[in-house]
Amino acid sequence: MKKIALFGLMALLLNVGFSQDKYFTKTGKIFFDAGTGIEDISATNKSTTSVLDIKTGQLAFETLIKGFEFKNQLMQDHFNENYMESEKLPKATFKGTIDNLSKINFKKDGSYPATVTGKLEMHGVTKDVTTKATIKVTKGEISAICSFDVNLADYKINIPSIAKEKLSSNAKIKVDCTYAALKK
Amino acid sequence: MKKWKIILFSFLGILGILGLVIAYLLNKEPDLPTNLPAEITITAKELCTAFSENENASNKKYNDKIISVTGIVKEVLKDEKNTTITLDAEDKMNIVSCSFFSCSETDKKTFGENCDLADQENEKASSLKIGEKVTIKGKCTGYLMLSGVVLNLCCFDKK
Prior knowledge:
The structure holds 2 protein chains of 2 kinds.
Chain A: H1 2-15, E1 22-35, E2 42-53, E3 58-64, E4 69-70, H2 73-83, E5 91-98, E6 110-122, E7 125-138, E8 141-151, E9 167-181
Antiparallel strand pairs in A: 1-2, 1-9, 2-3, 2-4, 3-5, 5-6, 6-7, 7-8, 8-9
Chain B: H1 3-27, E1 40-43, H2 44-53, H3 55-62, E2 66-78, E3 83-88, E4 95-100, H4 105-111, H5 113-126, E5 133-144, E6 148-156
Helix pairs in contact in B: 2-3, 4-5
């Protein structure tokens, strides 16, 4: 399964460079929040890569688990070692499409609601994800923002009972990417 | 002083110190590489070659380490706050991406002086010119198809 996902991503990324329709970023941001209000359990990843094809609506993301920065070193270590096992499973990927592509005019400035459907792979588990997103076009620059919840148990991320009060079983994920056109 | 009193007080003393150590460890902020020595010194080309030849072995060898990388600036990418620069690895498919750290208001409480230092480095990186030779120090987080080898919390290595 992982191989198929990787192959798909590769196929999409290798297409890059042959058309004006591809947009990319190397500095996409992902915010992660799994706190229940007792303690701040949040992290930011500022080096997520993403490719968007405005012609086909295909969208791919790749991010490194170790790139999530917490405010607290111990929390970051636990996240990597006990929950995400980032030594064994260093990446998370998403590959999907914009469902309502025809409603988005990438040539005209504006803010467009979008629905994105695809497969999210993390911690070695692949699941279907559908989420609402907002796509903004400003002077040829495209940005995409979306938020969705991830049920940790779905991805075989086990929360020990000692941490159940502090750690939410649903993590809030927010993605914020600003894309630039890929030059030939 | 009676013997038992000495024992009691030294026991309480040790308990107190232990408590402080635990409290410190529980609340310790992540280290910024600004004041940490590099564990590995390497060129951008060598680092990329290592990852493209064997990603798993390189993950084990380089991830979480503070790496000092020397290379030629290929791109300077800026968003509202953060600067990311990429280093040429003399290989069409490969680069090293160095993400600098800029502090938010809450980061300032956590990192104190280190924050100002990181901000200055971030600012300095934003004015780098393409083609300049630089040595960057940062924490290796792995390898992505589009970004090549990714270093986080970067600063200039002055050694």
